[in-house]
Amino acid sequence: MSISAIGSFYSNLSRPYATTARPATVATQGAASTTGSSSTVSISPEARQAAGAESGLRLPESVRQAVKADLERSFPEDIVSEAKARLQANEGIGGSSRTPGMGNLPLLPENQALLDKIRSDMQAARAADTESVFNLTPYARLMQAVQSEGWKAPMTMEDAQREVDIAQAMARLSPPPATAIDETAQAAAMADIEQQVAGRIPDKWRQRWQDEGLTMPTDVQVDFPASMWPKLADAAGISTQTFMTQARELAGQFAGNDYLRALESYISDAYSQTQGKRTTAA
Prior knowledge:
12 helices, disordered N terminus
């Protein structure tokens, strides 16, 4: 996959309905759209049609109306409250996770099995449907949800769908950016991906750590699309197992910027001690 294709894929996933005007507010009554079983992916017709709208193809009026209805569907109060909390916690970082910026960390075995199940169902749907462009995006979003959250604790299909709903509610609550700002953000996202593909720690992280006065290992080879954090921990003298245990513990205590600061401080302190020992030994 080309770098531009990678950037487009992640950009589309993070902007659920980028090609359609979004309501300014989110209704808070009604039930969330979740799957009825944790063993099988169930994608609603509306979600399939909404996915089709993102492809830029000309859609029949009936499909357009179904997309409009899906856009205007309400989320329950707990989804809206969580979306608001994450928007505030993730300000300046972006992302819909409570632990943003972590990338693709190693999944728990049961969550890897869940990810494989969703991927298998997506492939089956594509093989069975000649108009597969209308039904793959919902699967991709579920896969992204498991990938971003599945390193913390065991997940069910309902957990993954809840993460998707929260991400969509966050998108509804966020005002659409001005064109110039949107283009700048996309350019920055592409630069981030290009640097990771080249094996470098992205400049945005280097600048963040410099601004926060942290001593972080920056001469680390990144293996995109794998997360850079285990590599940073290893360079600081922390084993992957120890790092993952600490990352999970911190995820239960903090969210958003607070989570990242706690994790960064943990690695920075360990790296400073390692550097100090090397200096003393020399």
